[in-house]
Amino acid sequence: MQTLTIHSARDLRIEEAEAGVPGQGQVRIAMAAGGICGSDLHYYNHGGFGPVRLREPMVLGHEVSGHVDAVGPGVSKVKQGDLIAVNPSRPCGDCGYCDKGHFNHCLNMRFYGSAMPFPHIQGAFRQQLLVDEAQCEIAGPGVSAGEAAMAEPLSVCLHAVKQAGGIAGARVLITGCGPIGALCILAARQAGATEIVVCDLTDQALEFAARLGADKTVNVSGGPDALAQFTADKGYFDTCIEASGSEQALHSGLTVVHPRGTIVQLGLGGDMSVPMNMVVAKELQLVGSFRFHEEFSLAVQLISSGAVDVKPLISATLPLSDAVEAFDLANDRSRAMKVQLSFQD
Question: pTM for this structure?
Fold first, then answer.
């Protein structure tokens, strides 16, 4: 089989590897679709992000789906031919955080395509993948492989909404409308938000947000005063989901969320300064949101039932042989929201 392996910044190679035979409790997946994530782009553009650097060749990818190709002994949940959304979160189940049910903070997490540990955790951009049956979520009838591969980023957004502490009936601000911010619109609406306002730096992203169902959009390219309409009486919003990783966006969110409201920091853009006097004076809840775990099953259910429609986010699907073109397209926000690879040319 073929894999998509990064060696260093801009050094992306299609390489050969053995597919393997499923063992006890394992399933072999003939991979069908894989979405290019922001972390994949960081490895491609810069060889890593922050202190995390590539120290050996690594197969990229974690937003993936495919069809069951073979099953090992003891497998009972899935059968050959099933379309599977593959959960890339593989906690150890034995550490203190796993014991508490905080699986996304596992001390021995094996999350596909991650250079955080060494040796690196090899990713899922490959034509065949051996997985544990527990990682398999069966997509419903009529769901495409591309839609199933969107379960992973949707899970990230479902976890962010959960971190907000419940947003039924809430007025929600989402800062940043890349793929994650866009999916946050869908996740927030599904969770019962009554008003969703999205801000971004480009009109194109905001037009997309409106098509997804945002009630109002605001272009903040001219500066933070663009949100001044929401500052009266100490703030308008119940919740802000900060999906851009921008320090300025975080500060703006703190300004327009009312006292005792919640800001969920989802975007990663490096360390930020926080105006703590404002956090204290308004008694704000500032919480982080990192990955997901149990939300993955819910994401597949929502996509399979049609409760969340992820199709509009899929901008293009290119064959594995055109991987470099696909990554360059994914880098261009003016042309693409979510670019996916097809592994069965």
Answer: 0.95
